[in-house]
Write a structure and sequence with these properties.
Strand content: under 5%
Number of helices: 12
Largest sheet: 2 strands, parallel
Number of domains: 2
Distance between the termini: 43 Å
Number of strands: 2
Helix content: 55-70%
Structural class: mainly alpha
């Protein structure tokens, strides 16, 4: 389904924004793979010497390649749909595109640069959580379900902080502050504990698919230590 959707305006516009929007360093950018395999095609087409290929991979690193399913995952995690994300890439993608078709307020039409920068900030946030809880040291706490935990933490961040979180600052930094990192770690510990409390001994990947899991997780007791988090707007 995601491949069949490649020519829809949303994906064409997102590809154009990704190609035209440089990171704040002025030297690198993200890549939106509207068609499967497009990243490798670009490397073969434009990287026709070893030096050019290396330069391309420095400018557009593989870790900054995003597929259609990736965008659906990161977007829907922020939109409070972690249970749908947990059902798998294709199922979540179909629900995401259906929602976009039915509700014109979900994404702007046409897409704009501000939306794009915010979208990438959500990607950065998700990846920061996932990389933090997948380290060798973290496996003492987080033994399974890393993607599901990261998904739920992003949903909690959106639910608890929402517009208070300055996505533009995350875009400018292309990363997150140590203060926000500490908060996300604490919240990930709570999410992990909630999964184990809701269904002890079960696979987190199965528990994460249930809507009632999200209803219980979002009502959990999350630490509210907000000092030293530069990304939080003050009102």
């Amino acid at each position: 389904m995601s491949d069949l959707s490649a020519n829809r305006p949303f994906h064409v516009q997102l590809e154009k924004l990704a190609n035209e929007t440089w990171c704040p360093d002025g030297a690198t950018r993200w890549f939106y793979e509207r068609a499967a395999g497009a990243y490798n095609v670009m490397l073969l087409r434009d990287g026709n010497t070893p030096a050019r290929r290396r330069k391309l991979q420095e400018t557009i690193p593989p870790k900054r390649k995003l597929t259609k399913n990736d965008i659906a995952k990161f977007h829907e995690a922020w939109r409070g749909k972690p249970d749908v994300v947990g059902r798998g890439g294709e199922k979540n993608f179909v629900e995401f595109m259906d929602a976009v078709d039915k509700d014109p307020t979900i994404v702007p039409n046409p897409l704009d640069a501000r939306w794009y920068r915010g979208m990438i900030a959500k990607v950065i946030l998700f990846k920061a959580i996932e990389s933090m809880i997948k380290t060798k040291e973290a496996k003492e706490v987080f033994r399974q379900g890393w993607v599901n935990i990261a998904t739920y933490v992003v949903s909690v961040v959106s639910h608890r902080l929402g517009d208070r979180l300055d996505l533009e600052q995350i875009w400018m930094r292309q990363g997150i502050s140590s203060g926000l990192r500490d908060l996300l770690w604490d919240w990930a510990v709570v999410v992990n504990a909630e999964f184990n409390r809701i269904a002890p001994g079960q696979q987190i990947s199965e528990v994460a698919k249930r809507r009632e899991t999200w209803e219980r997780v979002k009502m959990a007791d999350f630490p509210q230590q907000m000092e030293g988090i530069s990304e939080l707007k003050s009102y």
